Amino acid sequence: MHTDLVAALDIGGTKIAGALVDGHGQILVRSQRPTPAQRDGETVMRAVEEVLGELTASPLWERAGALGIGSAGPVDASAGTVSPVNVPGWRDYPLVRRVRQAACGLPVELIGDGVAITAAEHWQGAARGHDNALCMVVSTGVGGGLVLNGQLHPGPTGNAGHIGHISVDLDGDLCPCGSRGCVERIASGPNIARRALENGWRPGPDGDVSAAAVAEAARFGDPVATASFQRAAQALAAGIAATATLVEIDIAVIGGGVAKAGDVLLTPLRKALGDYATLSFVQRLAVAPAQMGTDAGLVGAAAAALAKRTDAATV
Ligand SMILES: [Zn+2]
């Protein structure tokens, strides 16, 4: 049988998306359900099975040679389990086994959502052609992943590159992860908004207190809004510089809702990198906005599945 396609699942706290994807990253069939995130684990799994059911019903399904899953984390790729923070019904949930059952025994590759987005940016987006890259998602949380020596580097459990929980402030605020002063505790959207409000920024008549509203105020010169973005940029820059110093990345790609602030974030970020990325071998580090849109998770999961299929073919 000619298996030139792969199946992909992108599992997050708000939606479960599935697709059949070709070797060029084109999505040929897609399916989606809202995540019943507050329900029990079996109910969440049924939504995954419905998404898979639409894929397996496609006449193209028989061309799928592997299935990739990008899931909200933490994931444990070595155990095949997931424990997404925003899906309390799944703790050490045996997602790989359940998906393999629902997908007629296809080989299944599991990676974290930050790693999936990295795979997508490396394959089709802003990190294309870069052998050493850090890709980040800055939104409700801060996630990321690494490409090293031209290969995706998920690490043993599929979580490597999780830059949001690098500490950049030793005695900083407690982070929900248990550490202090994490990048995410300073640079995530909710934390940008919280800090602006604490320092006296007030929303407009629409009452919008999101990071996007803070970005809009910063664009119009509001000093408190600007300072909150500068602080976030500083935390991101310190995390990126640490990563670059450790493993010599040459590009940092930044996506996610907060990155839509554009120059409000990127200008102070590039400036702060000058303060933290100081050694000769990290000074040329580039910062680029992400290019992959809302399909990044699916395309990245497909990339992981393609790599798995290729591995299997060479065994
Ligand atoms: Zn943390």
TrEMBL record:
InterPro entries: ATPase_NBD, ROK, ROK_cs. SUPFAM superfamilies: Actin-like ATPase domain (SSF53067). PANTHER family: N-ACETYLMANNOSAMINE KINASE (PTHR18964:SF169), ROK (REPRESSOR, ORF, KINASE) FAMILY (PTHR18964). Belongs to the ROK (NagC/XylR) family. This is ROK family protein. It comes from Streptomyces griseoviridis.
